[in-house]
Structure formats: C-alpha cells, structure tokens
Amino acid sequence: MDRVNESHDRAARGLPAALAPGQPRPLGTTVDPGGVNFAVFSEHAESVELCVFDGDGGRELRRFQLPARTGHVWHGHLAGAAPGLVYGYRAHGPYRPAQGHRFNPNKLLLDPYARQTVGRLHWCDDVLGYRPDHPDLDLSFSTTDNSAAVPKARVAAAPAVPVDRRGQGIAPRDTVLYELHVRGYTMRHPDVAPALRGTYAGLASEAVTDHLRRLGVTTLSLLPVHFHVSERRLVQRRLSNYWGYNSLGTFCPHPGYASGAPGVAVEDEFRAMVHALHRAGLEVVLDVVFNHTAESDELGPTLSLRGLDNLSYYRCRVDAPRLYDNFSGCGNSLNLAHPNVLQLVMDSMRYWVTAMGVDGFRFDLAASLGRMPQGFDPSAPFFQAIAQDPVLGHVKLIAEPWDCGTDGHRLGRFPSGWLEWNDHFRDAVRAYWLTASGRRDELARRLTASADHFGTRGRRPWSSVNFVTAHDGFTLADLVSYEQRHNEANGEDNRDGATLNLSCNCGSEGPSVDAGVLARRRQLSRALLATLALSQGTPMLTAGDELGRTQLGNNNAYCQDNPVSWIDWEHADRDLAAFVAALLGIRRALHPFDADHWYAEPSDAAAQAAIGWFGADGQPMRTGDWHDTTSHALGCHIGSGQRGAAAVLLTNAASEPVRFTLPDGHWRLLIDSSCDPGSLEAPVDGQRAGYLLPGRALALLQRGADP
Description:
The chain is elongated, with a radius of gyration of 27 Å. The chain is α/β, with parallel strands linked by helices. The protein has three domains: 2-154, Immunoglobulin-like (Sandwich), CATH 2.60.40.10; 172-469 and 535-549, Glycosidases (TIM Barrel, Alpha-Beta Barrel), CATH 3.20.20; 605-703, Sandwich (Immunoglobulin-like), CATH 2.60.40. Helix 10 (423-434) packs antiparallel against helix 14. The mean pLDDT is 93. 21% of the residues lie in helices and 20% in strands. The strands form eight sheets. Strands 12-13-16-17-20-21-22-23 form an eight-stranded parallel beta barrel. The termini are far apart. Strand 8 and strand 9 form a beta hairpin.
C-alpha cells in the first residue's frame, strides 16, 4: 500500500493548481482523456471544495475549489486525474439548524454519485457536525475534522466485465420471487469455495444456481446491496446492520460482499454475478432504500447529503426545520419532492439497470416515496417519473406498500403495473392454519389475489405479492415452533421485533424431540407452503424456508451477521425442498387459478360459473357458512385453470381429517401436503368416495389427467 500511496503522491504533485470549469452534467465523476470532471448538487452551499486523498484514503493531499456553478450544480475539471483517484467534498455554507442548514466544511462528504468507496466508517464524535457535549444544537458547531473516520469515493475505471442487459423478460404472471441475503445465503454452503462464501461471486456459483433452478423460482429479490453502514449503537454492542437497510451510497455495490479477488473491482464482480444468474434463467431484483439514509435524525452523523444540502435532500419539518419528517422510523426521510433529489434516485435506478444489468427493484417503505403535502398520492412525481422513463418503465417494480408515518398503510394504492407485498395474505393464511381466529372468507379472498385491494384501477391479480414469511419476522420453521419472539441476542432486552406473529409452537416452545410436535410442525409447514404456491397472485418465498432454516425464534435478526441468520446447508431439509419444487412445478404447469382473471367475492353467486366455494359436504357455501368459525374445512371448484382442466382445491385447518364430497366426475390427486409427491393415491371418484383430507393439510385435484 505504501507504493500505491507514493504513486498517488506523485500524481497529486503533478496536478494543476486549480480546476477548469468543466461541465455540470452528468453528476458524479466523468473520466475523459484529459482528466476527470466532477459535478455535485447543492442549492444552498456558498462554495464546494474537492479534496484529493492518497490511495487508501488515509491522508488528504490537495484541495481544490470547484470553480463553476450552473444552476445548483457545482462543477470543475481536474486535468491529469485518472481512475483510482480518491476524493471527497467539503461544502461551505450557513450552519443554522433551526433553519434547516447544517453546512460544516470540517466534515468530509461522500459523493452521492460515488461508484466506488475506500475505507469504512469509524464511529467517533468527529463524524458529527455538532459538538455532542453542547446543549444547544444551533450553537454547537463542530470544528474537528472527520476525514480520518469516514469513507471516501474513488473514481471508477471503465467496466472490465461487460454488462448483461438481456434480462429474462419473465412475465409477471409466471414470476416466483425468492428473497435472499447475498452474504447469508452462501456463508455456510459446503459446495461454494471458502474464499467465495458470502460474496457476489459465491451467489453466482454453480452449486447455488443449480439449487435455485431445481426449486423453480424465477426471480431473486436481493436484500440491500447498496453501500451501507452500521449504526453506532450496534457497533457499540459488537453487532452490525446485517440486512443493510442503512444506505450511504446508492450507486456502489456494498464492498463487504465482494470476494476481494486481486484486480477485480467490486462492481465488476457484481456484473459477473448478474450475468451468471441470467445464464441460469434467473432475474435479479434489488431491494432499494430511498426512503431514508444512514445519516439518521438530527443527532446523527454528517457523512454526505446532510453536509451537502440538508434542507434540499431531506424532509425537514415545517414547524421545526432542525427536525425531520420521519416516515421511515429511522430518523429522516428523503425529500423526493425536490427535483434534484428525485433525479438522484432516478439516476441511481437507471445506473443499476443499464450499467449493472438488474431486472427491477423492490422499494423499502415505498409509501414514503409517494407522500405529498396532502398525503400519499399514486400520481406523485416519483411514480410519474418512473412511468415515463424509457429504461425504468419496463422493469419489475415491487412496493412494500407502507411506511411508519400516519396513514402509512397503502396496500393496493400503487400505480398500474406495480406489484405490492400483501401483508393481508400473510396474516389471513397464518391465522387460518395456525390460530383459532382464522376465517374461511378471508382465506378465500387471499387465495384469489385479494380483489378487495387490487381488483380496481387497472390492476391485475399478479399485483399481489403473496408471502407467508419475509426477512423481517419469523422464518417458516420458527413460525410453527415459537409463539413468542426470542430476540435477546439483539441487545434490546427482547423489546424489538413484532409482538403479533400469528404463530404456533405446536405444543412446545422451540426445539423439540417429541414426535407428535415435530409431525404437526411438518404438516403445517407444508400446508403453508402449498397455500402460498397455489394461490392466485405472485408468490414470494424467503430463502431457506424450503430448507427448514431457523433463527432460533429471533423475529428481528437485522443485526445478526452470524449463524443465526446464515443458512445452514449441512442440516437442510431436502425433503421439504423437493416438496416445494413439486409445488412450483404444478403451479407452472397448471396455474389452477387464472393468472389474469379476477374472481368475484366468495359470497357472490354470479361467480359460481368460474369458481365455486363449498363445504366438506359438497354444498355451496352460503352467507352464514362464511361466518361460521367452528368449521375449518373449505373447498374450491375452479371451472378451468389457465393451462388445464377444472381443478378442486381443498383445505382443512382442523386437527382431525375431513372427508370432502367432490363435484361430479373423476379427479386425479396432484398434491396432498400431508404426503410426499411420489406417494399419491389413485384417481378418485367424486360421487362415490370423495376425498379424505388429513388435518392441517391442503390438496389439489384435477379433473381427468395429469397437468
């Protein structure tokens, strides 16, 4: 590294005394044959300095004034500069927190458009823009330099790995999402080379892609891969922000997931991963955090946007600009109503599609992205900008349709073409199978894509992203093994995480050797997976659920970068994985519920031609039957599936078996969640035998032959 720094020192000495004006576009850095152009937005700054560092970012070598301003963009061209140059900004302007201004040139700032970063955040008081020992924030201007404690940007070279923009073009109706963590997925994978475990390259390994193809998923939804940092309170507990919902650089692949192979840039390893996943027939969707940043609340660090232009980048409270609107629950909210902030988000998304090859985005706390002064608006500038964008208008767009603000739950309110996480599906399916409070009418609505939320405004059934578990909450194995959260390892006295889980421990909290308990857990796990896979809408599996992954009852493992969160491949439940693969195979072949057709409300008699709901006795469900909470058996006769003959779906959440009278005709059993796919019964006669469905089980039968 000393030789690298000597080289940078020599290069710095050869730089000119001042910058040429350069160009205001594009923002960030642009390499040309004569040097590097720098451009950064700040509406309220009085001047901006470019600071050049040695190769590892440890020593500041030169400072240059950005000589030109076009509109609100400060810019300059540094002749003789080249890729590899390490830099940061210092912004001069008013420090008046009471008015929303937090400029402090003592704080080095990360370029919001940085493609690469150098170093990491070292938590100390120097990273704060104020003096923490002073009681008055407005009078506590910090004079200490933070450059030794913060990450810097590095000018990126041209890609060494070509961008794979082919994508897969998987239609929404055929999409099966699979949510995973890049690091945790392979950290314990015995067939991934040790040097590649927990990395982008590891995720691209043949051992991984083979499993995903066998499983039958189509689209990987990666937990955040933007450059992120851990909160001070976590570092003090020797924990980290494992999930990554604490972004600092939205153009940088997180360097902590890189293999560190000599000569391989982080972004090139990411591109190679995308290419390998595309070759395997898989799409790549990124979970992105545009609702807040790692700079947190008014007492948080000054690392980038806060120091560049706090009043523009963040939503400061109108009545108290020193404070923030906090729709994220993480201290601040990005101000997407500002055109330059909206541009930052749009440019970031376009970069990941055009320069990195990804196929879409899942937006964390997406309701905050559509908040206007009057509340959430599906026609907000963010949604309009995406809809008209020639690049982004054609990728997968998935919303987490809520935030932490007042009236923040907006399920079904996003624009046409968007998919949305459906927590009503999660809760109804859990309640039906795992609690005494489950209702058959709620289950019927969720089985048919929640038309009560998505059936208007041009939405399609695939708009509903159905899930039973996600990264946030219990794993599937824990959902049927714990009734209480067990989050002591998080260091918050078990106060964090959801308290209402609609879970069931099947008679024993946590690990058990009781054969009866284990059998009930197995039955319920399979019933939950079968309900998810066969419902109308877009199913989303959580990585490892098909393998029996446990977090030992931790339902908020966001800070557990250790075996609690990593998938244990050695003890994986291969039978359960085979069962999920069979379910997804049936879904592909049959699509028992028409992927594009809306069904009427369960109690609507006019819907009977397309779909008919019946009880165990074979009689159509009447209004009173839907409100009968003593019965847990429900049948559904689907007139014709998308790709096959008529089908019958049977569910029995009771502990005892129920014999269903089937509609007239001969029926062939396709799946019974209580048994393995290879041990199914012979065809059954609807009138004579009916079908005896065990307790805690779901079955799917088709009229006539196999799909």
